[in-house]
C-alpha cells in the first residue's frame, strides 16, 4: 500500500488504466476497417489487411496516436467516426470514485496519456 501522505501528484494514463481498452480495439480493428471498406468499395477483410500494414508502419511513433494523421492518411473523419461509437467507451470499475477520493484528499491528478 502507498503512503499517501508522501504523494502530492498522481499521474494517470487513460487507455487501459482509466478506460477499458475494448473501445480502442473495436474502433481501430473493427469500425475503422468497416468504414474504410465502405468508402473504397472493398471487402472488410481486405480493408483489415491493408490497415494492419499501415498501422504497423507507424506503430511506436507519434503518428500512431495522432487522429489528424489518420484522418489525413485514410481520408476518413476519425473524430466523427469516434462520436459514432462513443457509446462503447467504458470507464474501469471504481475509477470515478478513485479520482473523487484523490480530489477530496487534495492530490493533484494529471493525465499523461
Kindly describe this structure.
- The radius of gyration is 18 Å and the shape is elongated.
- The protein has 2 domains: 1-19 and 91-113; 21-89, no CATH class.
- The chain has a two-stranded parallel ribbon with strand order 1-2.
- Helix 1 (22-40) packs across helix 2.
- It has helices spanning 22-40, 44-58, 67-74, 78-84, 95-104, and strands at residues 9-12, 108-111.
- Helix content is 52%, strand content 7%.
- The protein is mostly helical and 113 residues long.
- The chain contains 5 helices and 2 strands, in the order βαααααβ.
- It comes from Thiolapillus brandeum.
- InterPro entries: HAD-like_sf, HAD_sf.
Keywords:
mainly alpha, 113 residues, 2 domains, HAD_sf, 5 helices, two-stranded parallel sheet
Describe the secondary-structure layout.
Layout: E1 9-12, H1 22-40, H2 44-58, H3 67-74, H4 78-84, H5 95-104, E2 108-111
InterPro entries: HAD-like_sf (IPR036412), HAD_sf (IPR023214)
Protein name: Haloacid dehalogenase
Pfam families: Hydrolase (PF00702)
